[in-house]
Amino acid sequence: MVNTAPSLDSRGWITDPNIMLDRLMAYYTASNYHQSLMFRGKIFSLQKAIFDCGQDMEMLATRVQSDLSMIMSRNYTEGSTVETNIVEDDTSAKVELQIAVTVIYGGKTYELQKAISTTSSVFITSQNAKAILG
Questions:
Q1: In this structure, is residue 133 part of a structural domain?
Q2: How many domains does the chain have?
Q3: What does the alpha-carbon distance between residue 92 and residue 6 come to, in Å, rounded to a whole number?
Q4: pLDDT at 120 exceeding the cut of 70
Q5: Residue 134 domain-assigned?
Q6: Which has the closest alpha carbon to 130: 116, 114, 118, 117?
Q7: Domain with 67 in it: what CATH number?
Q8: Helix (H) and strand (E) counts for the chain?
Q9: How many Å apart are CA 19 and CA 103, to the nearest integer?
Q10: CA–CA gap between residue 129 and residue 84 (Å, rounded)
Q11: What's the predicted TM-score (pTM) here?
Q12: 103 lies in a domain?
Protein backbone atom coordinates (compact mmCIF):
# COMPACT_ATOMS: atom_id res chain seq x y z
CA MET A 1 0.00 0.00 0.00
CA VAL A 2 1.33 3.42 -0.92
CA ASN A 3 1.71 6.08 1.72
CA THR A 4 0.42 9.56 1.15
CA ALA A 5 2.62 12.56 0.53
CA PRO A 6 1.83 16.09 1.66
CA SER A 7 1.34 18.87 -0.82
CA LEU A 8 1.49 22.60 -0.26
CA ASP A 9 -1.04 23.30 -3.00
CA SER A 10 -4.76 22.67 -3.30
CA ARG A 11 -4.28 18.90 -3.70
CA GLY A 12 -3.78 18.36 0.02
CA TRP A 13 -2.53 14.81 0.61
CA ILE A 14 -1.36 13.09 -2.57
CA THR A 15 -2.54 9.51 -3.02
CA ASP A 16 -2.28 9.12 -6.81
CA PRO A 17 0.86 6.99 -7.38
CA ASN A 18 1.88 8.87 -10.57
CA ILE A 19 1.58 12.32 -9.02
CA MET A 20 3.24 11.14 -5.83
CA LEU A 21 6.20 9.74 -7.78
CA ASP A 22 6.68 13.08 -9.52
CA ARG A 23 6.34 15.02 -6.26
CA LEU A 24 8.77 12.83 -4.35
CA MET A 25 11.37 13.44 -7.04
CA ALA A 26 10.64 17.18 -6.99
CA TYR A 27 10.90 17.29 -3.20
CA TYR A 28 14.29 15.56 -3.37
CA THR A 29 15.66 18.09 -5.86
CA ALA A 30 14.21 21.10 -4.01
CA SER A 31 14.74 20.17 -0.36
CA ASN A 32 17.46 21.60 1.83
CA TYR A 33 19.26 19.19 4.14
CA HIS A 34 19.24 21.77 6.95
CA GLN A 35 15.56 22.74 6.70
CA SER A 36 14.62 20.84 9.87
CA LEU A 37 16.24 20.48 13.25
CA MET A 38 13.71 17.87 14.34
CA PHE A 39 14.56 15.53 11.46
CA ARG A 40 18.29 16.30 11.29
CA GLY A 41 20.11 13.64 9.30
CA LYS A 42 16.88 12.16 7.92
CA ILE A 43 16.24 14.59 5.06
CA PHE A 44 17.46 13.42 1.66
CA SER A 45 18.50 16.27 -0.58
CA LEU A 46 20.13 16.61 -4.00
CA GLN A 47 21.79 19.76 -2.67
CA LYS A 48 23.46 17.77 0.13
CA ALA A 49 24.47 14.99 -2.26
CA ILE A 50 26.16 17.52 -4.58
CA PHE A 51 27.91 19.16 -1.60
CA ASP A 52 29.16 15.82 -0.23
CA CYS A 53 30.35 14.43 -3.57
CA GLY A 54 32.08 17.55 -4.88
CA GLN A 55 33.52 16.97 -8.35
CA ASP A 56 33.16 13.16 -8.27
CA MET A 57 30.25 12.63 -10.65
CA GLU A 58 30.25 8.83 -10.36
CA MET A 59 29.99 9.13 -6.59
CA LEU A 60 27.14 11.61 -7.07
CA ALA A 61 25.25 9.18 -9.31
CA THR A 62 25.66 6.42 -6.71
CA ARG A 63 24.58 8.73 -3.88
CA VAL A 64 21.47 9.94 -5.76
CA GLN A 65 20.56 6.34 -6.57
CA SER A 66 20.91 5.38 -2.90
CA ASP A 67 18.93 8.40 -1.64
CA LEU A 68 16.07 7.91 -4.10
CA SER A 69 15.99 4.16 -3.48
CA MET A 70 15.47 4.84 0.21
CA ILE A 71 12.74 7.43 -0.47
CA MET A 72 10.90 5.22 -2.95
CA SER A 73 11.10 2.05 -0.85
CA ARG A 74 9.48 3.90 2.06
CA ASN A 75 6.60 5.07 -0.11
CA TYR A 76 6.15 2.14 -2.50
CA THR A 77 6.41 -1.01 -0.44
CA GLU A 78 5.47 -3.35 -3.31
CA GLY A 79 8.73 -2.57 -5.07
CA SER A 80 10.88 0.16 -6.55
CA THR A 81 14.07 0.50 -8.57
CA VAL A 82 16.22 3.52 -9.27
CA GLU A 83 18.84 3.79 -12.00
CA THR A 84 21.25 6.68 -12.50
CA ASN A 85 23.74 7.51 -15.20
CA ILE A 86 26.22 10.35 -15.72
CA VAL A 87 26.80 11.75 -19.21
CA GLU A 88 29.70 14.18 -19.51
CA ASP A 89 30.37 16.40 -22.53
CA ASP A 90 34.06 17.25 -22.44
CA THR A 91 33.79 19.89 -25.17
CA SER A 92 31.28 22.04 -23.26
CA ALA A 93 32.00 20.87 -19.69
CA LYS A 94 28.31 20.03 -19.40
CA VAL A 95 27.27 17.19 -17.12
CA GLU A 96 23.90 15.46 -17.16
CA LEU A 97 22.65 13.20 -14.37
CA GLN A 98 20.01 10.87 -15.75
CA ILE A 99 17.56 9.29 -13.30
CA ALA A 100 14.99 6.57 -13.99
CA VAL A 101 12.59 5.44 -11.26
CA THR A 102 10.20 2.52 -11.51
CA VAL A 103 7.72 1.73 -8.73
CA ILE A 104 4.95 -0.82 -8.25
CA TYR A 105 1.63 0.05 -6.65
CA GLY A 106 -1.46 -2.13 -6.73
CA GLY A 107 0.33 -4.53 -9.06
CA LYS A 108 0.76 -1.76 -11.65
CA THR A 109 4.12 -0.31 -12.72
CA TYR A 110 4.74 3.44 -12.80
CA GLU A 111 7.84 5.03 -14.31
CA LEU A 112 9.45 8.44 -14.19
CA GLN A 113 12.62 9.66 -15.85
CA LYS A 114 14.39 12.94 -15.20
CA ALA A 115 17.57 14.52 -16.44
CA ILE A 116 19.40 16.99 -14.23
CA SER A 117 22.04 18.95 -16.09
CA THR A 118 24.53 21.71 -15.45
CA THR A 119 24.41 25.15 -16.95
CA SER A 120 27.24 27.46 -15.91
CA SER A 121 28.07 25.05 -13.04
CA VAL A 122 24.50 25.23 -11.67
CA PHE A 123 22.30 22.13 -11.63
CA ILE A 124 18.97 22.61 -13.39
CA THR A 125 16.23 19.96 -13.55
CA SER A 126 14.92 18.97 -16.98
CA GLN A 127 11.34 17.76 -16.70
CA ASN A 128 9.92 14.56 -18.15
CA ALA A 129 12.93 13.06 -19.89
CA LYS A 130 11.97 10.12 -22.11
CA ALA A 131 14.04 6.95 -22.66
CA ILE A 132 17.23 8.37 -21.16
CA LEU A 133 18.45 5.08 -19.76
CA GLY A 134 18.58 1.70 -21.39
A1: no
A2: 1
A3: 39
A4: no
A5: no
A6: 114
A7: 3.10.450
A8: 3, 6
A9: 12
A10: 13
A11: 0.85
A12: yes
Q: Which amino acid is at 79?
A: G
Residue 100 lies in a domain: yes
Q: With b meaning 16 or more CB within 10 Å and e meaning fewer, what string describes 84-123?
A: bebeeeeeeeebbbbbbbbbbbeeeebebbbbbbbeeeeb
pLDDT digit string, tens, across residues 71-111: 999 999 999 999 999 988 878 778 889 999 999 998 999 99
**What's the pLDDT band for 130 if we cut at 50, 70, 90?**
low
Beta strand extents in the chain (DSSP E only): 5-6, 13-14, 80-89, 94-105, 108-119, 122-126
- pLDDT, greater one: 32 or 66: 66
pLDDT, tens digit (0-9, with 9 covering 90-100), for 5-39: 888 778 788 989 999 999 999 889 888 877 777 77
The type of residue at 102 is T
Q: What's the gap between Cα 36 and its chain centre?
A: 19
